[in-house]
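Limitations
The structure tokens in this dataset are predictions for the assembled complex, not deposited experimental models. Users should treat interface geometry with appropriate caution, especially where small molecules or nucleic acid strands are included. An illustrative entry is reproduced here so readers can see what is and is not provided.
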Amino acid sequence: MAEVVKHELKTVTPAIDIIEKENHYIMIADLPGAREDSIDVTINRDILTITAEADFDIPEKMTEIYAEYKPCRYHRTFRVLDEIDRDNIKASYQNGVLSLVIPKADHLKVKKIAIEAK
Amino acid sequence: MLIREFERALNPWEMLKEVEREFDRLHREFDNLFSHFGEVREAVYPKTNLYSDTDRAVVIAELPGINPDELDITVHENTLTIKGERKAEELKEGHRYHLKERYEGSFQRNIRLPFRANLDGVKASYKNGLLKIEVPRAEEDKPKKIAIEKA
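Predicted assembly:
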């Protein structure tokens, strides 16, 4: 049986912002060149992992004068605590940017407490 | 002690421990070392690849999350310039960053092409956060084959 040997892509750590809002966190990852169907976001126990593969069409029959980046595999892992609602994480991808909306666990959400009139 | 624990509970990302391989961590520290020199960092944003043959050049730049219509792309003789700005999200009161690594601010790259460009033929496209610019070579700059006269 022939074994397909896939060329090992270099692993690149993507730049990430994490913003805390009242009721959720937003995690934004720059994944330039990533194909949407290659992006994988998983949460396994307390480990959140983002992986993706970036490639681009190297112009045919052209000479590379210089290359500051190459096709690569993006990989980043975080350990998250219990204070998030892991079942309701939403992900979207546009223009090379992955955005995750991660709701806080219910008991941490900002609640307005009404003041009772005496 | 109680207050400290309480703060932590409100703030899960602060306690995030990355579980990457040591290699990745070192690699990033190496990158960060350079990012402290503001000018160096500006000089390498966006990362760019350049390809060429005798008739045209192709520049592909990593520019995720920008509006390509707001970019300023100019060609002068054999220099291609990409100028733009990457704005961070403005935070309202009570919102805050736990991690901020993505490039923010204005940038400019001057890319020297291997020949003079035909300005009319320059084409740009944007996909998956990659900006691709195709620049044809100026006709008068193309190599000419010289016929050898028979003696």
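Some entries come with short summary sentences. For this one: Chain A has no helices and nine strands.
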